[in-house]
TrEMBL record:
Transmembrane segments: 993-1020
GO cellular component terms listed in the entry, alphabetical order: external side of plasma membrane; integrin complex
Source taxon at top rank: Eukaryota
Protein name (record): Integrin alpha-4
Family indicated by similarity: Belongs to the integrin alpha chain family.
Keyword set, alphabetical order: Cell adhesion, Glycoprotein, Integrin, Membrane, Receptor, Repeat, Signal, Transmembrane, Transmembrane helix
Biological process (GO), any one: heterophilic cell-cell adhesion via plasma membrane cell adhesion molecules
Bilayer topology annotation: Single-pass type I membrane protein
Length: 1043
């Protein structure tokens, strides 16, 4: 038998159990499935010779060919192998007598024959480590009892055990059980002695103490305890035939650190199973405690293991129930106490149906942390799985999870070798077989004939110490130094010493391939340094080595409140892909948190010795471009929001303002120190307000708001909330938020102006005068107020007929003229077609056939405009349905005929123009009403006197429908009338020529007579002014005396 070393690629959670280089033993590629090699496994280390062995039971194996040829009749007796871990060989451990043995039972005074064939030698075994003794049992051994003289013969599946030094390859038969067995009881046969066996671990003396199970003794089972050279029996009270007491056995110091107690399982007891704790300190055994299963058929007690899981000095008991639920399997953990009873602390459950989790269990301190760990096999989960659970304190309040999960399904085996099956069917107490100070685990996979040894790696507890130079950064600092020193718990140095003196060069070189790696992350969250991630490596695993590196700070950083975080993590790394197991290459302790260290490097922020900046920010907010009480006219000028800050405390670092604007409000422009977030329904604006905002410093921030989208009718009297949050990395004891409300109102009106192109016309009575007159009424609409008009209309009422007569007035289709664009107006009546209307000229009448128009207009209806809350509609009144009592004489007052829509016997047409196109104050709507008066019909049927005057009026009304609620604007006019007068003038006559000549002659004659009278009066003989002056001087000269 040779061990076969395979490279396993397994899926494991990863801790210190190596799954890359296990030691694997295969019985035989040809007979692996029939020998049950790996049915039982045990590890043993002999410290004197520094030798380790794996003991493997193969209860259906045959001896080697040499022995088999010598004993041809010996079929499947079972073989036990001692496999060396230092050399690639396994040796057969033979019974001293391989052939059937003959003996004599004094109790019966009869002869016996111990038959070795199919005895299942190796199905149970245990090692007395204190004395180096191996005991192997064959529970299915048949013992034939006979008396050759009386022809008496009985065969019983008695079971036999064999013991011997483990350093030897020969085991001797134990006859004592046959002498002590009670052959005189009613059911004495088939006890299956040795179905289970266990040597107790003795703390003080090397006395042999052993418990052996006989689960079929008198059908219910019994256990035999050997201690102090005495044999004691123990059985369950109230046993039933299905109990199988003795199916599994163990021992431990559960309630007293100096009192050894034995344990035996009865998995068939009342279909739920029971475990008994046995005290054998006196000559009579007693059961001091019982544990029972909870589910029918779970086979509670089928497997047992003992270890100090919580490291309190008292052993703890693990009980397997591999058929729990749908054969998922379960393991119960009972913790020993000084109170004399167990506390159920943990339960581990299999998660896969039919996996038989807990079929084999063991316990031992695999990572050398002082807490025994739990090893659980689930041999029917895929090809077999082994779980490792680490012990610890306060497990009662923890959800214990596996630290490693080792799957056989991922093992890589040569194609010529059988698939590994039922991995985890057997295991036993872990032992350190390679001398690295850590326990190794044996695992059997009997179905495929494999036995596996999983070795443990050293576990090191690393502590990282970090410091920086300087310890405090100035705000203008450009770099700093990080120094990291790993400190180990001392085991690394011991490993170097041990390997140098005791082990070969290969082990030493493997250790040299190990590196200590420290991964350092600098300021990961705030990203203020150039170097953000770097590694430090060293191949010298000592407690005196330190690492240092220089870190550069980025320019123009802003956050000085938050210190720079330096996070370091230590790991062990194997630099070379080795082809063998490195038993001294350490791993980090799983529960160690000191291999990860962090230091915070602060900035000098001028905030006192406590390094906490207690700022006191006062903040106010004010709207500009609004009216009193923060009222804004919808559609008016843009609004400015100003925030004023002043700090009355210590510096406020990274002071920012967060504005939350109402829906529909945006910014016309963004300040360079502000940012917008448009990802949400409401606009968020973040503005930097100081880094720091020093004590006494003031800061004003003004935002230019764009309110152009707030034009809906529903906004009237609505309050818009502007929320401003003041945030700083300092501790702000002042204002932290402001809410300002802006009240919205609508203010808009429409005002009307109008003009008739001619205010009066004089109708001629001569025969060749015009038969109709074209005239115009022009209306202008002005928008007043800033709020946009969503819906408005201009309603123009035009009289067209008096009484039931034919129409007097014909109307061209009017158009609304706004800012260079033409828009159609509407009427229910038939109007004259036109392509365009030029408001500066008269309309050429020759384009229209008045007879056709007359016929159409006779069918017109009066359109009277009415509004209710919900809609605008027109009611039609047929001219022919008007009562005949409404006669023309009702319109004659003082010789004036009034033709307007307020007069009862006048029939009108209504024209409606949509004014929603008036958006701004610069928009002016102009409507030209082109009208034609039928003079012949007026003079012939209506005007009967030369003194009668026709006063024609059109009426226009403007109405705003949306916004429905609004503030009025003063000095507006919503209704206006335009009038045109038509006078019925007398007949014109020609002036005679003789009258003109006579008039001129009389005028000339009167002029001549007037001139003659003036001449007679001397008017034309008067002196001039100069002549009068000269005469006056001459008279003065004459009067002077002479000398």
């Amino acid at each position: 038998m040779k061990p076969i070393l395979f490279l396993f690629l397994t899926v494991a959670y990863g801790y210190n159990i190596d799954t890359t280089f296990p030691i694997v033993y295969l019985y035989s590629a040809k007979f692996s499935s029939t020998s049950y090699f790996g049915y039982t496994v045990c590890l043993y280390h002999e410290s004197i010779n520094n030798t380790s062995w794996l003991i493997v039971g193969a209860p259906r194996a045959n001896y080697s060919s040499f022995v088999k040829q010598k004993f041809r009749q010996l079929i499947e007796p079972g073989v036990v192998y001692r496999c060396s871990l230092d050399s690639p060989f396994c040796q057969e451990m033979k019974q001293k007598e391989i052939r059937d043995e003959e003996s004599y039972i004094t109790q019966l005074e009869m002869n016996i024959v111990i038959k070795k064939q199919r005895g299942w030698f190796g199905s149970a075994m245990s090692i007395d480590k204190s004395n180096g003794v191996l005991t192997v049992c064959a529970p299915r051994t048949i013992v034939s009892i006979f008396n050759p003289y009386d022809n008496i013969h009985f065969d019983t599946m008695q079971g036999m055990c064999y013991s011997g030094k483990i350093s030897s390859t020969v085991l001797s038969t134990e006859y004592e059980d046959l002498e002590y067995h009670n052959f005189r009881s009613n059911i004495w046969y088939n006890p299956m002695y040795g179905f289970s066996i266990h040597y107790a671990s003795i703390k003080e003396v090397k006395e042999r103490r052993r418990i052996t199970g006989k689960p079929m003794h008198e059908t219910y089972g019994i256990v035999e305890i050997i201690q102090e050279n005495k044999r004691l029996l123990a059985e369950l009270p109230l046993n039933d035939e299905l109990s199988q007491f003795g199916y599994s056995v163990e021992s431990g110091y559960f309630f007293n650190k100096s009192q050894l107690l034995y344990v035996s399982g009865a998995p068939g007891w009342h279909y739920v199973g029971q475990v008994a704790i046995i005290d054998a300190t006196t000559n009579v055994t007693s059961i001091v405690a019982k544990l029972q299963g909870t589910s029918t058929g779970e086979f509670f007690g089928a497997s047992l293991a003992v270890g100090d899981i919580d490291n309190d000095g008292f052993d703890d008991l693990l009980v397997g129930a591999p058929y729990w639920e749908q054969d998922n399997g379960k393991v119960y953990g009972y913790f020993g106490t000084s109170k004399g009873h167990f506390e159920e602390v943990i339960t581990l459950q299999g998660i896969v149906e039919s996996s038989h989790f807990g079929y084999a269990i063991a316990s031992g301190d695999l990572d050398a942390d002082g807490f025994d760990d739990i090893i659980v096999g689930a041999p029917w989960e895929d090809s077999g799985v082994v779980y490792i659970y680490n012990g610890g304190t306060d497990l009662k309040h923890k959800n214990l999870r596996a630290s490693e999960r080792i799957e056989a399904i991922h093992f890589s085996l040569p194609d010529t070798y059988p698939k590994l099956e039922r991995f985890g069917f057997s295991t036993s107490k872990p032992i350190d077989i390679d001398g690295n100070g850590y326990l190794d685990i044996p695992v059997g996979a009997y179905k495929s004939g494999y036995a596996v040894v999983l070795r443990s790696k050293p576990v090191v507890k690393t502590e990282l110490l970090i410091r920086t130079v300087p310890s405090v950064l100035e705000r203008d600092a450009k770099q700093f130094i990080v120094e990291i020193c790993p400190r180990y718990d001392g085991q690394v140095s011991q490993i170097f010493i041990v390997i140098s003196f005791k082990y070969n060069v290969m082990d030493y070189n493997s250790l040299l391939d190990m590196e200590s790696e420290i991964r350092v992350t600098v300021d990961e969250q705030h990203q203020r340094t150039k170097e953000k991630l770097f590694q430090m490596k060293s191949s010298t695993l000592t407690s005196t080595a330190c690492f240092e590196t220089r870190v550069n700070i980025l320019r123009n950083i802003r956050d000085f409140i938050e210190p720079i975080s330096i996070l370091a993590r230590h790991d062990f790394v194997n630099t070379n892909a080795s082809s063998h197991f490195c038993k001294f290459c350490p791993v980090e302790r799983r529960t160690n948190k000191l291999n990860v260290a962090q230091i915070l490097l602060p900035f000098n922020i001028d905030c006192g010795t406590d390094k906490i900046c207690n700022s006191n920010i006062s903040a106010t907010a004010k709207f500009y471009g609004v009216r009193d009480n923060d009222t804004w006219i919808v559609g008016s000028t843009e609004v400015n929001l100003e925030i004023s800050l002043k700090n009355y405390g210590e510096p406020a670092y990274l002071t920012t303002l967060q504005f939350t604007f109402p829906k529909g409000v945006i910014l016309r422009s963004i300040l360079p120190f502000c940012q917008e977030d448009t990802s949400k329904d409401k606009l968020l604006v973040f503005c930097e307000a100081g880094n720091p905002l020093w004590k006494g410093e003031e800061r004003n921030i003004t935002l230019d708001l764009d309110m152009k989208d707030l034009i809906h009718d529903s906004l009237y009297n609505r309050e818009l909330n502007f929320y401003i949050a003041i945030e700083t990395r300092s501790t702000n004891q002042g204002t932290t938020s402001i809410t300002r409300m802006l009240n919205l109102v609508n203010e808009v009106s429409l005002s009307l102006n109008g003009k008739a192109n001619e205010e009066a016309y004089y109708l001629s009575t001569i025969k060749d005068a015009a038969s109709n007159i074209s005239f115009q009424h022009t209306y202008q609409v002005y928008k007043l107020g800033a709020t946009p008009v969503e819906d408005a209309q201009l309603v123009i009422k035009v009289p067209v007929a008096i009484n039931v007569s034919d129409p007097l007035i014909y109307i061209y289709k009017p158009q609304l003229y706004v800012s260079g664009e033409l828009f159609e107006c509407f009427s229910k009546d038939i109007l004259l077609d036109t392509e365009s209307i030029d408001v500066q000229r008269e309309w050429p009448m020759h384009k229209f056939d008045m007879h056709v128009v007359t016929n159409k207009m006779q069918e017109t209806v009066d359109l009277k405009h009415k509004r209710d809350v919900n809609e605008t509609r027109f009611e039609l009144y047929n001219v022919k349905n008007i009562a005949a009592s409404q006669l023309a004489n009702e319109s004659f007052i003082n010789d004036i005929l009034y033709m307007n829509c307020s007069t009862s016997n006048v029939y009108c047409t209504t024209i409606v123009c949509n004014l929603s196109v008036l958006k701004t104050l610069q928009d002016i709507g102009k409507v030209l009403i082109k009208l034609v008066l039928n003079v012949e019909r007026l003079k012939g049927n209506i005007l009967t006197s030369n003194k009668v005057v026709l006063k024609f009026d059109t009426e226009a009304t403007v109405e705003i429908l949306k916004p429905a609620v609004r503030l009025p604007v003063n000095e507006t006019r919503s209704t206006i009338q335009l009038a045109t007068m038509f006078y019925n003038s007398p007949k014109s006559e020609e002036l005679q020529l003789w009258i003109i000549i006579a008039s001129i002659s009389v005028g000339l004659l009167l002029l001549i007579i007037f001139a003659m009278i003036l001449s007679m009066l001397g008017f034309f003989k008067r002196k001039g002014k100069q002549n009068l002056s000269n005469d006056e001087r001459l008279e003065e000269t004459k009067e002077l005396p002479r000398d």
